[in-house]
Amino acid sequence: MSILLEIKNVWKQYGDAVVLEQLSKCVSAGEFVTIVGASGCGKTTFLNMLLGTESYSKGKILLDGKPLPSEPSQDRGVVFQRYSAFPHLTVLRNTMLGAELSASPFLGIVFNRRKFSAIREKAEKMLESVGLSHALNSYPHELSGGMQQRLSIAQALMKQPRMLLLDEPFGALDPGTRSDMHKLILALWKETGITIFMVTHDIEEGFYLGTRLWVFDKVRFDPHNAEAYGAQITYDIDVDQSAKRRLKKELELELEKSEQAFGASE
Questions:
Q1: b/e per residue, 113-133, with b = 16+ CB within 10 A?
Q2: Which of 60-74, 199-213, 228-242 is predicted with the least confidence, judged by mean pLDDT?
Q3: How far is the CA of 185 from the CAs of 172, 193, 194, 206, 209, in angstroms?
Q4: Which DSSP letter does residue 131 get?
Q5: Most exposed of 100, 139, 204, 229 (fewest Cβ within 10 Å)?
């Protein structure tokens, strides 16, 4: 597989507070990278840097060998834990909106019937793929949590991005719905071959979904200044089914210690 993303000695700090440091990794097209770590260690900050809503302080992030665009673009889709649908639009129109804005940036309305029909057909197929073909004319408030997250995934994939960024997308769902969403995201990943980065607090979820699992943690501490050093990628695990159980137990112990360390520094 070809290298899609290169992260070269990336640092992120706010003033004198270092959040992330010495991040250097390469990710091939089609990989599914899950990211775990203690609360406040910079996982979401890293995802925002990939999205383009946060800038990095030092280093380089390259997409296809070129600097990653510093603003969100259609090559990166994102799904947050909180749903991002417009309440006054139906499921279908929410899904169509991204393509409509691309075709008509100022008005967001496509008057050409042929273009409009093509966008509508694409949106209907996307909603069918996430299991929402029965809810095209429903509004977001009429959907369950799982259905709203399915809508968010359809919106994110509508523009056929190179990367899909997931920030704890299933954290607010009940166990049964979460299991259904796991099956859905794996099916879509295998079907599209998209590269996925997913932040999660659930180690078991990280091992189940990912082909690689990254652990963010601090390896350096200053007892007089808790913000002197940032988190690094301390583990980069090529997920092997036979090793999952053993590694999961080891990481649970490591993350428990890390949570205590971050809590003591706050």
A1: eeebeebbebbbebbebbebe
A2: 228-242
A3: 16, 11, 11, 13, 9
A4: T
A5: 204
- Measured from the Cβ of residue 101, the count of other Cβ atoms closer than 10 Å reads 15
Report the side by side order of strands in the sheet with 76-80: 76-80, 163-167, 195-199, 32-37, 212-217, 232-238
Confidence at residue 113, expressed as pLDDT on a 0 to 100 scale: 87
What are the residue ranges of CATH 3.40.50.300 in the chain? 1-75+163-266
Both structure tokens of 5: 């993303």
193 SS3 class: coil
The pLDDT of residue 264 is above 80: no
- Kindly state the average pLDDT of the residues 45-50: 96
In sequence order, the β-bridge partners of residue 55 are: none
**Helices (H), strands (E): how many in the chain?**
7, 10
Alpha helices per DSSP H over 77-174:
91-103, 113-129, 145-157
pTM of the model: 0.87
Task: Outline where the chain has alpha helix (H).
Answer: 43-51, 91-103, 113-129, 145-157, 175-192, 203-209, 244-265
Please determine, for residue 247, whether its predicted confidence score (pLDDT) is greater than 70.
Answer: no
Note the CATH number of domain 1-75+163-266.
Answer: 3.40.50.300
**Does residue 7 surpass a pLDDT of 80?**
yes
Q: Around Cβ 69, how many Cβ atoms within 10 Å?
A: 12
Phi and psi at 121, nearest 5°, equal -65, -40
